[in-house]
Design a protein that fits this description.
Strand content: 15-25%
Radius of gyration: 23 Å
Helix content: 25-40%
Distance between the termini: 49 Å
Structural class: alpha/beta
Largest sheet: 6 strands, parallel
Shape: globular
Number of strands: 18
Number of helices: 13
Length: 463
């Protein structure tokens, strides 16, 4: 069979997609990026917030169109939407042939083979996220939580550019944040064995991967579930010795689990990027308490001071949620003051959305949508002003970047990144005054920073 897969959502979901592609290829199926020519289409969905659910539903419907008008014989839906609304998807979308939750990744080969394809016209109906509600498909408390996690022997087919790859070191989450459904969708936290991770890293490096991005729902909780304190620091030092790797980047660190062993490994290892992705979610103590988030603004400030002292030159990325129920103007003022004072390198701001199955779903004192959007713009505008001031001070500096490829904006401009910039989520460096044909993706180049543009830097190679 010719199999096409569309992966939505976060890098953690992308790794699941790569595993499914690897399993399908191992079983003898052909992979394609052309939906119109696929015999089987797989949509690996996200269901974290309303906008993600809507994108998932829209994509499923788009792929269903190929069953009606093209060669597609089977449509498979996997991932978080499938885990969360399994029965509703089967009932409301008859065009779907198989539904696999987050713990059923290995069943993809069976689903591809499946029952005989349906015949006749496929009904295509417009749905809204609200059609998949807790009333239609409650999350049954008795349902077993997902427990699957892949290992070093599991085949993967990388969907990222050849020079970088994500490596999932753990799955699931044990936190109970009021706004988050992930523990229900992904199960309890479970760390992979250290040897398994190192073996996979060695294999990826042998395949040409130069940048490794370590991910999990809480990367700094690695090993704690097994009573292994300091496990992440030990893992980082082993990964630092993997031949062929140039950069090792950590994503999704939590404020209560960053220990000194991790910071020491980051400071002392030449391949570990001095980059910390630390979702803080807010800086107002009353909001943090209602969110059931660990820590306070004061403890966050202490932590950030400790990180900067232990890892000089570290880049800090964080995310915030505005519009949480009961959030006041005073809370927003506390957040903007914190953002300005801390001078984060990268900030993402999301607007709160009610999600059934979370403890925040029943909270009152909703913030109007217009206010949420205004607050988001307010925080991002402040962050942009601060970033631009700091970037201008970098003009004239030398730096080392990795080439990601053509910029897509002009044939003579290359897109690249510093060690302090993660792919897809952060700003970038655009290289001008060079011959793009002389550089290849994954190549590391010394540059001089010559200008700025919004959040981005402009550079030219040192010849």
């Amino acid at each position: 069979m010719k199999v096409g897969l569309i992966s939505l959502g976060c890098p953690k979901n992308l790794v699941d997609s790569e595993v499914m592609l690897g399993l399908a290829r191992q079983a003898g199926h052909e992979l394609t990026t052309d939906a119109a020519s696929a015999d089987v289409l797989v949509v690996n969905t996200c269901a974290f917030i309303d906008s993600a659910k809507q994108e998932s539903v829209d994509t499923i419907l788009e792929m269903a169109g190929y069953k009606k008008n093209g060669s597609c014989q089977r449509l498979i839906v996997t991932g978080c939407l499938a885990e969360r609304y399994r029965d509703a998807l089967r009932t409301e979308m008859p065009e779907i042939d198989a539904v696999l939750g987050t713990g059923e990744v290995p069943d993809i080969v069976k689903a591809i083979g499946g029952a005989p394809p349906r015949t006749g016209a496929v009904p295509v109906t417009l749905y809204r996220p609200s059609d998949f509600s807790s009333a239609a498909n409650p999350l049954a408390a008795a349902d077993p939580l997902p427990s699957y996690i892949y290992d070093a022997d599991t085949p993967r087919w990388l969907a990222t550019p050849r020079h970088y790859a994500y490596l999932k070191i753990a799955e699931g989450c044990d936190y109970a944040c009021a706004f988050c459904i992930i523990p229900t969708l992904r199960g309890h936290y479970r760390s992979r064995p250290e040897d398994s991770i190192v073996q996979e890293a060695e294999r990826l490096a042998a395949q040409g991967v130069r940048e490794l991005l370590l991910i999990s729902q809480d990367t700094t909780f690695y090993g704690v579930d097994r009573g292994e304190r300091g496990a992440l620091g030990r893992l980082l030092r082993r990964l630092n010795g993997v031949a062929g790797l140039e950069w090792i980047r950590l994503l999704y660190l939590y404020p209560t689990t960053i220990d000194d062993a991790t910071l020491a490994a980051m400071a002392e290892s030449d391949k570990i990027c001095k980059y910390i992705d630390l979702p803080l979610q807010h800086a107002s103590n009353p909001v943090l308490k209602r969110m059931k988030r660990p820590g306070t603004r004061q403890s966050y400030e202490t932590l950030l001071d400790r990180i900067r002292a232990r890892v000089p030159g570290v880049a800090l990325r964080t995310t915030f949620i505005v519009g949480f129920p009961g959030e006041t103007e005073a809370d927003v003022e506390a957040l903007t003051d914190f953002v300005w004072a801390q001078a984060f390198d990268h900030v993402g701001v999301f607007t709160y959305s009610h999600e059934e199955g979370t403890s925040a779903h029943s909270l009152e004192n909703d913030v109007p949508e217009r206010s949420k959007q205004a607050r988001r713009r307010r925080v991002m505008s402040l962050q942009k002003r601060g970033v631009q001031q700091r970037l201008r001070r970098r003009v004239g500096e030398g730096a080392r970047v990795v080439i990601d490829g053509p910029s897509g904006e002009h044939e003579l401009v290359l897109k690249a990144r510093l060690a302090t910039q993660a792919p897809d989520i952060d700003a970038a460096v655009y290289l001008t005054e060079c011959d793009p044909s002389q550089y290849r993706p994954g190549e590391f180049v010394d540059i001089t920073i010559v200008g700025t543009r919004d959040y981005d830097l402009i550079g030219r190679p040192v010849l």
